[in-house]
Design brief:
By secondary structure, the protein is α+β, with helices and mostly antiparallel strands. 40% of the residues lie in helices and 16% in strands. The protein contains six helices and seven strands, in the order E-H-H-E-H-E-H-H-E-H-E-E-E. The protein has a five-stranded antiparallel β-sheet with strand order 1-2-3-7-4, with helices on both faces. The longest helix is centred in the middle third of the chain and has 32 residues.
């Protein structure tokens, strides 16, 4: 298992996308207030977000009915998550009735996590491409007819029995809650495609990390 370190100086976010997604631009007063508190919330994020990104490359032993995956020699299982600390920070704002602050901080954390995931995916893409391999489309339990039960298999393939700061509930939901677990197949016969996640093509319309596709 390889960890993908991300320092607070490398956190990526798009304020305009966040404001658009939360519809903060619609009211001038709300927008002005959001602009005034945003630097404070960025600092709060930097103080409280703890990112954990990791991946493991294994032989492809998955039994999934997928012609694309069946042509892959290897599998890259990926995890991207934030610890409970930032969730507790958002909950604390909500408990104090600082609802707008809580909504913005929550979406800011999602944006940072999503971008960190894309950065790790690009590393994988480059590593495999240097060896003559291309990656399959992303496999995510709960999407594209892939049962949630695969979460357990993915997590086992990722950790290989090593201690790891993520667990599954009895319904195969990840804990902590701000986390993603997914995999890519890797094969020499696959087409070369962009590794960046495209929300406009993603079937998970309720994903809390989903970007607004029409900012």
């Amino acid at each position: 298992m390889m960890f993908f370190p991300v320092s607070v100086d490398e956190l990526k976010y798009d304020k305009n996308r966040i404001f658009t997604r939360l519809k903060l631009r619609a009211d001038p007063n709300t927008n002005a207030y959001a602009e005034s508190i945003f630097p404070y919330l960025v600092e709060l994020l930097r103080e409280n977000i703890e990112l954990v990104l990791a991946y493991n490359i294994t032989d492809n032993d998955l039994t999934i009915a997928s012609p694309e995956l069946s042509s892959c020699d290897m599998l890259a299982v990926c995890y991207c998550g934030a610890t409970q600390k930032i969730v507790d920070c958002v909950d604390d704002l909500m408990a104090k009735s600082d609802f707008l602050e809580g909504y913005i901080l929550n979406d800011l954390a999602n944006e940072v996590l999503f971008n960190a995931s894309n950065a790790m995916n690009r590393r994988l893409y480059n590593e495999f491409k240097a060896q003559g391999y291309h990656l399959s489309t992303r496999l995510t339990p709960g999407e594209n007819h892939l049962n949630m039960e695969y979460q357990a298999q993915f997590l086992s393939l990722l950790t290989q029995g090593e201690p790891f700061p993520a667990t599954l509930t009895e319904h195969y939901m990840l804990q902590p809650e701000k986390a993603m677990l997914y995999a890519y197949g890797a094969g020499t016969g696959l087409p070369d495609r962009s590794i960046d996640h495209d929300c406009s093509k993603c079937p998970n319309l309720s994903c809390y990390m989903r970007r607004d596709t029409n900012p």
